[in-house]
Inverse folding.
């Protein structure tokens, strides 16, 4: 239950109590007037006044009545026993009629109040969570969407480019080939949270390792993790470092599957290195590469650890992608509905990637068989 | 029923306690638990250490599944939230009133929510000003005694005056030396928020963050680094806590704002550690300077008993044992933690130890500290606050805009009564109808009576 609902509930409960007590007292007063029992009448009026003052000194009622422009709670109650709008009824019959009239009105409003009170629990909101995310053009959703696309595209692009270069280099036979391969695998072997914390430490401003190197080289120190504009590029740098080995090892496997015969045949035909790469290596690598890229897209899209752990402490949303933003909206804002909507959107985006992935796999399999 | 009642007395009651402490505190805790088990041989306590960062989620899941630990060390901001979710057992009828009176009011406030007592404060903390006495006295020598020590500051202007002098002294040592280091975290900004009488949210649930007083506080904070140049203006938000401590420990910054949890760390730095050529008595803590209202946010942890605890009496016995002044003193001596009982403080002052003055300074600060809002959403306030505070810190948006945006986000979070506009207008309409009806009936009645 939210704070607002709680205040509302407590206030209305107290308000209802007060209203029913006041109505009872009013009846007593009328009865007393009818029977000319001045003592009882006095007592009832006293009680009414006391009740009114207690209602207005109640902090919750005070809060509720202070925020709207005029003191509605008070005027409502005033209207009930007429102290606000004029003198009490001139005579008993008059008061009686009024009281009957009023009690009808009161019971009507009590019914309404009860209806308001009863909607405290969870209720079905239809597609409201999605409209709230997608409907508003100024919502953070669109900003985060572009950031997510930028993050995924740049990461996978560099993963592939650097991975391919390294694979081509390591595909040659030379001394210490295996040692290099092992060394390049290191980022993949390091748990991502360890990597994130080490990079965070190295990117420290102004005294981190990287800023130290920059200063020695004659540049100014850069505030990588304090400047919202630089956070995402910094995280991309780290994630490229972490993601290259996977791409490299996959592409290397693909490269080693290409038959030497084809290169020899090309050599006899007089093809140069570039032509060999363009016409033999790339087409033969395509099946492996497309699957590796698709996998890379899915993994990068959902890469939570790097962004979250490296920028922990900086609350700007310029660094957020869908997964980190969804986490934030449920963890720190308690907006479970919104976070669930995010999760469904992430799932549907990834589902389209995955279906493309599986259809690719199928196609390759068929090709392999024929 | 009879069997159920007598069973725990004959057999052994087993309690599970999730503590969320760091390794140093845990060592003390383990000893205290064994002391407790010696005193109450029929109760066995199983100490489960849950990392603080996971504790919130774990407890929530466990409590929803009715497998929560019997006793939990609960962060103050979580206590009202869990109380509202119905995870905790109310304790007001089990704890003796005289026992409650001994607690300091600021930490105890966090245990009371919705008219019930939901826990007992284990440890409290507040922010205070850490300063390097050696830098101050060196600066005083340079400026012929014009630098006032933080204990003698009467108001905020004294602070500014001394800080300016200390800063010019620090600049003689190097360009990366400063009088002050300001963190880009809204929690650490709060003393300035209260400087001109601003605030977060008051007891009536009104949002004060965008009030003029709060905005002036933010302006004063930013002017410290931008106009007065007392602190580095460009900082790394992801690493600033470590940078502040590192700089303070090495004498790069003469003053920082931090809490009692950082005392041991500060004393290990080269400026204050005898084995590294420092002097522990150079480390000073003072009350944060103030202009109108004193301010320092009170934090800490409570012991709470979960609702599904089978033997609440035994659990409370354990909690009360841990709340004993002697036990609190042990924690204070070994781990520099602030006790929550007045008796523990008076016991502590009789002892002689390194951080004695420090704890005394924190006690002074605690007396003039503010509570964070005791509402279920209390823990969720700081994320949005920090986000826009950091934007203002970097000068991307004006302080007014920043605070206005924080208030907007909080309204979404809390549901400001502004949200009831429809409802209120309906009610007003109803009142108007009621009034007009009354008027109508009245006029009719008077006409009738005149007619008679």
């Amino acid at each position: 239950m939210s704070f607002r609902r709680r205040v509302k509930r407590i206030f209305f409960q107290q308000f209802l109590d007060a209203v029913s007590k006041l109505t009872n007292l009013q009846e007593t007063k009328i009865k007393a007037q009818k029977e000319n029992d001045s003592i009882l009448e006095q007592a009832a009026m006293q009680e009414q006044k006391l009740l009114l003052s207690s209602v207005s000194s109640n902090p919750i009622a005070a809060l509720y009545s202070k925020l709207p422009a005029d003191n509605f709670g008070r005027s409502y109650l005033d209207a009930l026993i007429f102290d606000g709008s004029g003198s009490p009824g001139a005579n008993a019959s008059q008061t009686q009629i009024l009281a009957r009239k009023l009690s009808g009105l009161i019971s009507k409003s009590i019914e309404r109040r009860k209806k308001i009170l009863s909607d405290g629990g969870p209720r079905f909101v239809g597609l409201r969570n999605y409209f709230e995310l997608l409907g508003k053009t100024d919502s953070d959703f669109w900003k985060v969407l572009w950031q997510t696309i930028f993050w995924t595209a740049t990461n996978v692009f560099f993963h592939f480019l650097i991975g391919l270069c390294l694979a081509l280099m390591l595909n040659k036979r030379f001394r210490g080939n295996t040692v290099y391969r092992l060394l390049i695998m290191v980022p993949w072997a390091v748990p991502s949270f360890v990597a994130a914390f080490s990079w965070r430490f190295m990117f420290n401003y102004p005294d981190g390792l990287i800023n130290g190197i920059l200063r020695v080289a004659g540049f100014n120190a850069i505030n990588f993790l304090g400047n919202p504009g630089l956070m995402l590029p910094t995280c991309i740098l780290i994630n490229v470092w972490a993601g290259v080995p996977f791409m490299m090892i996959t592409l290397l496997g693909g490269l080693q599957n290409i038959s030497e015969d084809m290169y020899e045949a090309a050599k006899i035909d007089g093809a140069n290195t570039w032509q060999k790469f363009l016409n033999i290596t790339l087409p033969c690598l395509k099946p492996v590469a497309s699957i590796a890229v698709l996998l890379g897209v899915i993994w990068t899209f959902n890469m939570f650890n790097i962004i979250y752990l490296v920028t922990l402490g900086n609350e700007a949303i310029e660094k957020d992608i869908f997964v980190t933003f969804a986490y934030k909206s449920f963890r720190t804002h308690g907006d479970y509905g919104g976070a669930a909507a995010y999760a469904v959107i992430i799932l549907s985006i990834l589902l389209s990637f995955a279906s493309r992935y599986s259809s690719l796999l199928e196609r390759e399999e068929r090709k392999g068989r024929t | 029923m009879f069997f159920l009642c007598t069973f725990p007395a004959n057999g052994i009651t087993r309690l599970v306690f999730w503590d969320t402490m760091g390794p140093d505190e845990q060592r003390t805790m383990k000893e205290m638990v064994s002391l407790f088990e010696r005193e109450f041989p029929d109760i066995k306590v199983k100490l489960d250490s849950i990392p603080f960062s996971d504790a919130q989620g774990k407890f929530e899941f466990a409590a929803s599944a009715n497998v929560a630990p019997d006793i939990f060390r609960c962060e103050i901001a979580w206590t009202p939230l869990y109380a509202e979710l119905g995870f905790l057992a109310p304790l007001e009828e089990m704890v003796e009133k005289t026992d409650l009176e001994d607690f300091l009011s600021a930490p105890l406030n966090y245990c009371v929510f919705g008219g019930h007592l939901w826990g007992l404060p284990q440890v409290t903390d507040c922010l205070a000003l850490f300063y390097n006495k050696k830098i101050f006295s060196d600066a005083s020598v340079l400026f012929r005694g014009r630098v006032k020590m933080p204990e003698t500051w009467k108001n905020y202007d004294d602070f500014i005056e001394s800080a300016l002098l200390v800063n010019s002294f620090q600049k003689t040592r190097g360009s990366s030396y400063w009088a002050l280091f300001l963190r880009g975290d809204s929690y650490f900004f709060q003393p300035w928020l209260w400087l001109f009488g601003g605030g977060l949210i008051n007891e009536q649930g009104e949002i004060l963050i965008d009030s003029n007083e709060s905005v002036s506080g933010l302006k004063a904070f930013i002017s410290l680094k931008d106009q007065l140049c007392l602190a580095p203006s460009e900082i790394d938000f992801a690493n600033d806590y470590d940078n502040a401590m590192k700089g303070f420990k090495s004498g790069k910054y003469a003053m920082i704002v931090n809490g009692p949890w950082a005392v041991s760390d500060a004393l290990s730095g080269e400026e204050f550690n005898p084995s590294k050529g420092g002097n522990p008595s150079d480390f000073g803590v003072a009350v944060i300077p103030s202009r109108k209202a004193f301010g320092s946010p009170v934090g800490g942890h409570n012991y709470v008993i979960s609702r599904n605890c089978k033997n609440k009496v035994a659990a409370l016995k354990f909690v009360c044992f841990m709340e004993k002044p002697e036990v609190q003193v042990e924690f204070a001596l070994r781990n520099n933690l602030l006790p929550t009982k007045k008796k523990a403080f008076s016991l502590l002052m009789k002892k002689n130890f390194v951080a004695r003055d420090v704890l005394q300074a924190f006690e002074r600060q605690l007396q003039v500290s503010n509570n964070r809002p005791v509402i279920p959403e209390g823990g969720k306030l700081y994320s949005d606050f920090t986000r826009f505070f950091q934007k203002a810190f970097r000068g991307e948006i004006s302080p007014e805009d920043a605070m206005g945006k924080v208030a907007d986000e909080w309204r979404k979070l809390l549901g400001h009564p502004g949200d009831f506009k429809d409802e209120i207008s309906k009610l007003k309409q109803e009142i108007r109808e009621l009034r007009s009806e009354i008027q109508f009936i009245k006029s009719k009645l008077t006409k009738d009576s005149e007619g008679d």
